[in-house]
Amino acid sequence: MGNCWGVKIKAVCPSHSVPNSGTNSRSGRESGSSSRVSSSSSSVPPTPRSEGEILQSSNLKSFTFNELKSATRNFRPDSVLGEGGFGSVFKGWLDETTLTPTKPGTGIIIAVKRLNHEGYQGHKEWLAEVNYLGQFYHPNLVKLFGYCLEDSHRLLVYEFMPRGSLENHLFRRGSYFQPLSWNFRMKVALGAAKGLAFLHNAETKVIYRDFKTSNILLDSNYSAKLSDFGLAKDGPTGDKSHVSTRVMGTYGYAAPEYLATGHLTAKSDVYSFGVVLLEMLSGRRAVDKNRPNGEHNLVDWARPYLANKRKIFRVLDTRLEGQYSQVGAQKAAVLALQCLSTEARFRPTMDEVVKTLGQLQDTRDAARNPQPDQKTSVQSYSCNGHKSRREVQKMLGM
Ligand SMILES: Nc1ncnc2c1ncn2[C@@H]1O[C@H](COP(=O)(O)OP(=O)(O)O)[C@@H](O)[C@H]1O
Ligand SMILES: [Mg+2]
Questions:
Q1: pTM of the model
Q2: Taking a C-beta distance cutoff of 8 angstroms, is the pair 273, 341 a contact?
Q3: Tens digit of pLDDT for each residue in 36-49?
Q4: Which of 57, 311, 318, 360 is most buried when burial is the number of CB atoms within 10 A of its CB?
């Protein structure tokens, strides 16, 4: 690929510095903790433990390798939808009712992820996805139809997400990918936050652990769904404050305390959410060595600006000028800054993030469809909007 982003953190001993592996593969997933998971919805069964239990209990279809070969027309290279550390993802077609392969253009479209490399780590990630996506149903989590486990083949069959990943929309240049508007960015942020909040609110928390733009997929209406549960992990139970794991994830997104100690909490996901929100606000990648010295790491570069209300606008994507209200932009920037707090306890919960982002959408909707008795107006500002600081503080409730 030749770029310098998306470098995976491989398993390293906590409290040692993380080596820059320069590879996009993941390895060394932890063995499951002893805790059991059930979702906040009472109809969801507790997380099964053994592989047999996971595969038996899920409502997923077990596909044969030949079925998926035929559904994807022999994994045609021109039908690749994307690639990640696990393998390539191909477009395919199934009959809607029987879920058997059909001709391209008929039935439902699916996305088939195929593990490229053999080995225990790949199998564990595959099983983690079957485990979590097989039992959770939520509008902001991608739907898994089934899997294939045959000889050394490990595949996953998902609903097709027509607008692909958030990463492509934010960072790919070209006529197909127009810059995502402010409103769509905020909609995506809210949807993804709801997905994380759902996982964190499960009876026993689930920590997603790999929250980043390439794992957020978009449907035709730009509703966000979390995908790629390969690194998801049961959260701490009882009076435990964290789970101890080997450090896994992606450079630029992992929380500092997790990198330093291997202690994983839901607040690690909140930090990663802050990084993604900042990427959405700025249109810049979390890590990009093509930027000038001192700007390689987005969080380090942006933090001083986010902390200063008058300088927040230096961080905002210039392609968004004129699309946001000054108040909305500042609220979003303050939220990102809170999520990026170095100390985990100062970060908001994902429920609080959902609430704040929900209020931002409400303000926007109110501005678009003012009620007859509504006196406040929210205007659109560019980076150089002229509201006085005092007025802004008042609107922000400071
Ligand atoms: N259901 C889907 N619909 C459309 N594109 C998808 C789908 N699933 C994955 N992709 C594409 O493939 C890429 C890699 O998928 P992902 O599940 O993150 O794999 P990995 O586990 O290898 O990181 C995504 O970033 C996206 O571009
Ligand atoms: Mg991925």
A1: 0.84
A2: no
A3: 222 333 334 445 46
A4: 360
